[in-house]
Amino acid sequence: MTDSSSEPAPVEGRGRSSRRRSGSSRPKSKRPLKAADTLDYTVGRGTRMGFSAAAAVCIPVLNLALGRRWKGLETLPEGGFIVVANHVSEIDPLVVAHAVYRSGHTFHFLIKDSLVRIPVLGKVFTGLKQIPVSRDSRTDAGRSLDAAKDVLAADGAVMIYPEGTLTRDPEGWPMRAKTGAARLALSTGAPLIPITHWGVQELFGTYAKVPKFLPRKRYQLTVGEPIDLSDLRSGPMTRTVLTEATERIEAALTEGVASLRGEEAPELIWDRTLRQRVPRSQPRRAPRASSAASPTAETPHPPIAQPDDAQEGQS
User: Fold this and answer.
1) Which residues, at least 6 apart from 46, have a Cβ–Cβ distance to it below 8 Å?
2) How far apart are CA 61 and CA 98, in angstroms?
3) Is the N or C terminus of the chain more exposed, i.e. has fewer CB atoms within 10 Å?
4) Which 3-state string (H, E, C) describes the chain?
5) Which pLDDT tens digit goes with each residue over 138-178?
């Protein structure tokens, strides 16, 4: 359990990659997902300095605004791993990133591609090797997955919000997840680590416009046990396998939040498409009609990201 404000920089060597820089120039199009294909994800001295500079700005503000109680950071793997987290506030990416950075890892969110188009902020995301994901292009989403694999191979932490956006559940429980995190974990074999938190939304509500600094708020964050997908990796990646892996992610996040809240989780889970809670075993909605080439229920899926699987690191 950790409650300290001393912030060591990420351990030397973590986050390095041997990825070769592409010789193609950055396209002039407004679609920045090509960056996931051309950006060198090597975490060298310049990138580490960028992480240190960002930490020097953000961490004192977080420490001033929020008290914290962390548990389980010492259990994070030494090598690359995938983090899945619940999403209840616009600022919870900062607290999850803070915990992972404190553990000595560089963190790399899968973020909406629109964020890298924002002046200045987009440059920061690119400089810190955050990974843009397109919701519109299957090819660009595949490039983003390749970039995430490079980060994992370089012992970095890939951060994913499997719900894809802030929870719509009226009581803040994790809602149905997309399959992107499961797809990445199954195709890479990387450890899949659930990180749950509760209390951040007291400072900045789920759909709030301004924070509430007083009285000072406090949050809890717990690193859970790795989600076991070993029995699902031996066969083809069918839709059934992806669904089972995704339901295990949903269960791990729900159990973690329930423990932090000291409450029993609801039996049903919020479905964003139907705008209501549904049985956890209820079949998921069919693929979009535009995906005419999508595999059938038992056809093996290629290990590429689908547009629907785009994850939001920051909303």
Assistant:
1) none
2) 12
3) N
4) CECCCCCCCCCCCCCCCCCCCCCCCCCCCCCHHHHHHHCCCCCCHHHHHHHHHHHHHHHHHHHHHEEEEEECHHHCCCCCEEEEECCCCCCHHHHHHHHHHHCCCCEEEEEEHHHHHCCCHHHHHHHCCCEEECCCCHHHHHHHHHHHHHHHHCCCEEEECCCCCCCCCCCCCCCCCCCHHHHHHHHHCCCEEEEEEECHHHHCCCCCCCCCCCCCEEEEEEECCCCCCHHHCCCCCCHHHHHHHHHHHHHHHHHHHHHHHCCCCCCEEEECCCCEEEECCCCCCCCCCCCCCCCCCCCCCCCCCCHHHCCCCCC
5) 666 778 888 898 899 888 899 999 999 999 999 999 999 99
Question: Which residues fall within 8 angstroms of residue 310, CB to CB, at 6 or more apart?
Answer: 110, 112, 113, 133, 134, 135, 141, 164, 178, 180
Q: pLDDT (tens digit, 9 = 90+) per residue, 62-85?
A: 999 999 999 999 999 999 999 999
Predicted TM-score of the model (pTM) = 0.80
Q: Could you give the dihedral angle defined by the CA atoms of residues 305, 308, 309 and 311, in that order, rounded to the nearest 10 degrees?
A: 130
Query: In angstroms, how far is the first alpha carbon of the chain from the final one?
Result: 29
Residue 44 has pLDDT above 90, yes or no: no
Two tokens, residue 187: 């195709």
33 in Cβ contact with 133 (< 8 Å): yes
